[in-house]
Every structure is written in C-alpha cells, then in structure tokens.
C-alpha cells in the first residue's frame, strides 16, 4: 500500500513516501555523527556484499534500518542470490521498492533465471508488459503457452512475421 502525506494528497501528488517518512524519521534531522556512522556501515555492507559475506551483510543491514540507501544493498544481495532466494524475500523487496529502478532490475534478473529454468508459472507471476524487449516478450509468450494459454501463439505470430531474424529466444 502506497502512503502519501496529507500535503501530497491535497495537492494530488503521486510521489509515495519513503520508508523513513512513513516511520516518521527525517534523515536530515540526525546528528552528523549518526549520519557518519550510517555512511560507514553502508560502505561496510557494500564491501561485504562484494566479498559475499552474508552474515556480515545481514548484520550491517540491521543497523541501516532507516538509511535511505539501504535498498541498494538489499538489491545487490538479492541480485547475487536471486537463484536461491525465496519468493517471499523477492516479493517483499519488490513491494517495498515498487516503481523503482531497483525493483525493475531485480525483476528482470529473476525473469531471465525463471525462463532458463523453464519455471513458466513463476515467470508469468513476475512478468509485466513493462519488459518490452523482443526477447522478453518471446519468453513471456512461451511461458503463457506452456501454462495453457493458446492465444499466446496468435500473439507470437506478430513477433515472427517481421523482415529480420529475431533473437534465438524467439525461435519456436
């Protein structure tokens, strides 16, 4: 559920509140030493992600509860581990970061993995029309077809009836 401030609602704004704003936390009111500490923890978390030190990353994330850049660490971690991460963790990140570039990037990675694994039902669950590249559209049509949607074949004809070769992903 997207939350808007009273001021935003009155003005008809469509910008959702950040997690920090929803919690009533204003990062700008933190002391300089608190900000410095969070910056240091963020850098340590970033380093731990690169070194694949999962326990350290999780410890740093717990300390970054209200840090505005925390989603970037979460994205890097989920991106690294998207093949083994639970749907619940992926869904939580996508919900908390809805309409963000990070959510789109993670969804794209997950979709490519699910297509490689031929996990078509899961693929259909994550796919949206926002992923409009021809290879991704072909994967989507294949996923729909493999889950019983025969209309997908009619839509595939549009992709195949072009004057150039399509990506191998689009080969029947």
Average pLDDT for all residues: 84
Number of helices: 10
Q: Calculate the terminal CA-CA distance, rounded to whole Å.
A: 40 Å
Outline: elongated
| Number of E-type strands | 0
Oligomeric organization of the protein chains: single chain
Strand content: under 5%
Q: Which structural class best describes the helix and strand composition?
A: mainly alpha
User: What string gives the helices and strands in order?
Assistant: HHHHHHHHHH
Question: What is the helix fraction of residues, given as a range?
Answer: 55-70%
For the largest beta-sheet, the strand count, sense and barrel status come to:
none
Radius of gyration: 20 Å
Unreliable residue runs: 1-17
What are the SSEs and their pairings?
Blueprint: H1 6-11, H2 19-22, H3 32-50, H4 54-63, H5 70-81, H6 87-96, H7 101-116, H8 120-126, H9 134-146, H10 151-160
Helix pairs in contact: 3-4, 3-5, 5-7, 6-7, 7-8, 8-9, 9-10
Task: Describe the fold and architecture.
It is a single chain. 62% of the residues lie in helices and 0% in strands. It is mainly α. Helix 7 (101-116) packs antiparallel against helix 8 and helix 8 crosses helix 9. The protein is elongated, with a radius of gyration of 20 Å.
């Amino acid at each position: 559920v997207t939350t808007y401030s009273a001021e935003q609602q009155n003005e008809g704004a469509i910008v959702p509140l950040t997690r920090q704003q929803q919690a009533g936390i204003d990062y700008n009111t933190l002391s300089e030493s608190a900000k410095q500490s969070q910056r240091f923890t963020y850098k340590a978390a970033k380093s731990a992600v690169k070194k694949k030190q999962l326990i350290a990353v999780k410890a740093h994330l717990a300390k970054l509860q209200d840090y505005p850049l925390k989603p970037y660490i979460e994205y890097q971690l989920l991106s690294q581990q998207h093949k083994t991460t639970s749907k619940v963790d992926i869904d939580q990140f996508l919900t908390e970061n809805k309409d963000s570039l990070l959510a789109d990037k993670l969804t794209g990675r997950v979709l490519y993995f699910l297509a490689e694994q031929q996990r078509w039902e899961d693929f259909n669950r994550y796919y949206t029309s926002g992923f409009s590249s021809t290879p991704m559209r072909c994967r989507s049509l294949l996923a729909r077809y493999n889950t019983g949607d025969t209309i997908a074949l009619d839509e595939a004809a549009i992709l195949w009836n072009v004057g150039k070769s399509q990506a191998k992903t689009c080969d029947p």
